[in-house]
Amino acid sequence: MQEIITEDKDVLTVRKKLTKAGDLDFLAALLHARFSKMAKGDRLIELSRIQNLSDLFQSVYPDKTIEDNNDFQKKILFDFISELYGFYAYLSKDYICFINWLTMRFQLENLKILLRGFFNKIPFLRIKSFIINLPGALSLNLKKLSEAETFDEFIKNSPKGFFQDILKSAAKIYGDKTKPFFIEAFLDSAYFNELISKTNSLKSTDRDYIKPIVDQEIDIFHLMLITRGVMNYNLPPDQLKLFHVKGTAIPKRIFTALLNESDLGLFIKKLEGRVIDFIPLELTKTDQSTALDLSILESLAWKRFNHLCHRVFYTNHMGFGAVIGYIGLRRIEIFNLIVLSEGIKEKFGSDFIRKHLILKDYGEASHV
């Protein structure tokens, strides 16, 4: 007997059933069925009108008992990771290797939370709620990592292999007195460099579909290095050049120019067609006297990611591109559900919440 994915009432779940390994067509068909039930478009607008968290939990998980907002967010993430593991029964070794690297991103995010706790001396109990529940190989030794007294001790108890090696390299460059921002960016950059390498190793019929999605995610990382590193934290641009990842729509020459661009209007124009699709009206009048809302740029970048995933999901509808497109769309769904839960928790109101959702069409959020 072998584990495979099957369609269940709420999500694609894993059950015991004999199936043929490498049955990509069957998996793609299941994902298209799942996509039709995903929280998106009008369904998201409907959910944004909900006034309390218990009604949201009931709408998303009608047959489950959700204790609180933290429990809700952890559940949607855990369900997603479990779903990804379920894909393996249908995929060839090369495809499994690629998706396995995507799942490593969750381990990295947990590691970064623990790093922040270590450098900022935050008690583990205060950050524990932010740790994602991960299965098996993705789990971390939370006890030893949270009790580490030195950076060397933290590294020693980190996962052996890729991330531990990267942390050792970071320690040689930055030591143990640096800002956690640099260590996190170092880890992210290394992860994305490996993702580019694995993408380039795919056969061209898969790579041509998938690479634009991978490039966009990495270029969002590039954008956030600038918006958060330079504009928010006032970090020297020269210290951020190291984190550039080659092979995307933002080459190092453009990245360096963006890091040093003081004219906000020119900065935004350089992003158009690379990491955002177009410059919205509210940003066309941006000048030195205008306070730039950086969240608008990041939201536009994720909208572009959403569009690319939609495109690949349908154009390569029975190929590996459909699987990667679906994974991206699921990530957007999870992002939107978290926005909803946080917005409802803070009583921000439906209009405010809708403005922060990532929707397929730029005008969707305005429909009431």
Keywords:
18 helices, disordered C terminus, mainly alpha, 368 residues, globular, 63% helix, two-stranded antiparallel sheet, 2 strands
Give the helix/strand class. Answer: mainly alpha
Secondary structure: helix percent = 55-70%
Overall mean confidence score, pLDDT: 89
**Helix count, DSSP H or I runs of 4 or more residues:** 18
Multimeric state of these chains? Answer: single chain
Low-confidence stretches: 1-18, 362-368
- Order of strands across the widest beta sheet? 1-2
What proportion of the residues form beta strands (DSSP E)?
under 5%
Identify the overall geometry. Answer: globular
For the record, give the distance between the C-alpha atoms at the N and C termini, rounded to a whole number.
Answer: 49 Å
Overall strand count: 2
Q: Which sequence of SSEs, written as H and E, runs from N to C? A: EEHHHHHHHHHHHHHHHHHH
Main sheet?
2 strands, antiparallel
Rg, Cα atoms, Å: 21 Å
Explain what the structure shows.
The chain is mainly α. It is 63% helix and 3% strand. It is built from 18 helices and two strands. The chain has helices at 24-35, 41-48, 53-60, 69-87, 93-119, 124-127, 142-147, 151-156, 162-174, 180-200, 204-232, 237-240, 252-260, 264-271, 281-284, 294-315, 320-345, 350-355; strands at 3-7, 12-16. A two-stranded antiparallel sheet has the order 1-2. β1 and β2 form a beta hairpin. The longest helix is centred in the middle third of the chain and has 29 residues, at 204-232. The protein is globular, with a radius of gyration of 21 Å. Mean pLDDT is 89; it is low at 1-18 and 362-368.
